[in-house]
Amino acid sequence: MVTTDGVAEALAAPQDTGQAEAARTRRAPLSEVWRVGRVRMAAEVLQLSRNTGLLIFTFAVPVVMLLLFGSIFRGKIDGTSATYQQVYATGMIGMCVINGALQNLAYTVAAERHSKALKRLRTTPMPAASYFIGKVASVLAATVAQITVMLAVGVAVMGIRLPTSPGRWLTFTWVLVLGATACSLLGIGMSSLIRSENGSAIVWLPIMVLQFISGVFILFSQLPKSVQVIGSLFPVKWLCQGMRSVFLPESFKYAEPARSWEHGRLALVLVAWCVVGLVLCLKTFSWRGRDDG
Q1: How far is it, in rounded angstroms, from Cα 281 to Cα 277?
Q2: Between the CA of residue 239 and those of 15, 66, 69, what are the distances in Å?
Q3: Could you tell me how far CA 227 lies from the centroid of its own chain?
């Protein structure tokens, strides 16, 4: 019986150079891409589950920050039936997507490039698309797990009520899929900016700034108008707004700058950033590091 580990190791093992080059130059059938992609999915998720330190950090930080903000800012927001705690809970759900799909993916891809793991993978017959399928699958698995934890804390401590309408869960699904896709593509593209093992601040700093100007930690409507305009250009603001539309009372939409959830514009912006992320991946992604021979 062939195990997932065994298949993953076989994919990562160096192959004959001529065979690898021929495999790369021919267009792999879609069925082959998905077959190998499923193996990569299993390998990536298994690898993630064994990284205890990363899991503790990934799950603990959002929960601690939610409890911290929830204990400092209390009370209802004027003109709505929503509380500050509920708004912060939805913001932290958005943060889970951003950190998991963008920040962590940029770090892990850059680390694999610097360790020459990407270079070794590129010498195998594995289609490049299968590698990306595995990465995105691991991101989605971790993100869904984080969101589940955040919702449990939000329901137990922050007064979040889970939607009973199928329409809201449908909104949650397409916002999550579009947001995670856009952030995953941007994360893979931005991994090329991390040129050394100590270069993570290049990605961490702009992401942290975006969170502050996009309504994760501060109510978006309370930000200066100029900051709102800048924040509206990026996907983080729209991702968080989509999550607010799912988990907050309908009355809160009147606290939004447009006094509406703007689902149509929200979808267009996230799709546009999916395209931007894809272009960035195609233009900047490299299997080799700067020092690779």
Answers
A1: 6
A2: 42, 18, 20
A3: 23
Sequence-separated (6 or more) residues with CB below 8 Å from residue 66: 88, 89, 92, 150, 153, 154, 158
Contact (CB, 8 A) for 73 and 65 = no
Separation of alpha carbons 181 and 271, rounded Å? 9
Largest Cα span, the chain? 68
Q: Looking at this protein, which amino acid is placed at residue 158?
A: M
**Both tokens assigned to 52:** 């205890």
Report residue 111: phi and psi, to 5°. -65, -40
Cα–Cα distance measured from residue 213 to residue 74, given in angstroms and rounded to the nearest whole number: 21
Distance from C-alpha of 246 to C-alpha of 260, rounded to nearest angstrom: 13
What confidence tens digit (pLDDT) does each residue in 237-264 have?
999 999 999 999 998 998 899 999 999 9
Is residue 137 within 8 Å of 44, Cβ to Cβ?
Answer: yes
User: What's the chain's length in residues?
Assistant: 293
For the stretch 177-211, pLDDT in tens is 999 989 988 988 888 888 766 666 778 888 889 99
Q: How far separated are the first and last CA of the chain, in Å rounded?
A: 37
Torsion sign over Cα 47, 193, 127, 133: positive
Q: Any bridge partners for residue 292, and if so which?
A: none
Indicate the DSSP class of residue 50. Answer: H
